Amino acid sequence: MAVQDAAHEIVLYDLASTKNVCFSPVVWRIRMMLNYKKIPYKTVFLEMPDIEPTLKELGLPPHDPGTGNTKNYTVPAIYHVPTNKYVMDSPAVAKFIESTYPDPPVQLDSELGTQIMRKLRSGVGPTFQKSLMPREALIFSPRAEEYFRSAREARDGRPLEELLEDEDEAWEALESDKPAIDALIHTNKADGPFILGARPSLVDFFIAGAIQTAKVIDEGVFQRISKVPGHLEIYEACQPFMQKKD
Ligand SMILES: N[C@@H](CCC(=O)N[C@@H](CS)C(=O)NCC(=O)O)C(=O)O
Question: Where is the GST N-terminal domain (predicted)?
């Protein structure tokens, strides 16, 4: 059954952990849009093994294979109470929120944003994942941890903990990437604290969401990601949209 509540226009399906706050970077992007636009919503946390059965039961169709998703059902997904509509997959959810609640606007795409995301995904991203995944496993319930471990270990062909073996070297190797990241992130510094200047855009939420993931999972990884140029500034500038965490 969908969660019906007149006081909430949106139900946000999020990923559960023992911390009981949002920690998924991809859900944080959507949550920050909702918080920034002050849209009333409530959260339903789903244990990872329950995502597919729950969303299927609610009547959502699985992801279109063309979206590149490897799982049939994922969070974030939303239920929009006024239109009785479900939307799944963060790009589709972001577009739906932006078109339904255009004020204040959140720019979803920009050339600079795409360039930054591409740069981060190819450099910092894999190292960040390496540090986070084995630690992420520890904040799930035992049932969710088992699901998470077996899926990730089947995919990677080795125990999660082995990812940590060359963790320090991987972070050191990123040093050479920092000047280019610094220049890109500070392109519009004169106009404001966000990547496009005065107003936050989706790429700010992408970065701040990733940092918040580390904050919830592990302080050491948070410290490391915070030292990537521009990251702490964006995280701090996004704090007003990170107050509602559950
Ligand atoms: N492309 C999806 C990816 C979302 C995603 O990977 N979500 C994870 C949680 S962070 C998930 O729902 N995983 C379900 C599973 O592994 O069974 C999006 O951007 O919404």
Answer: 23-99
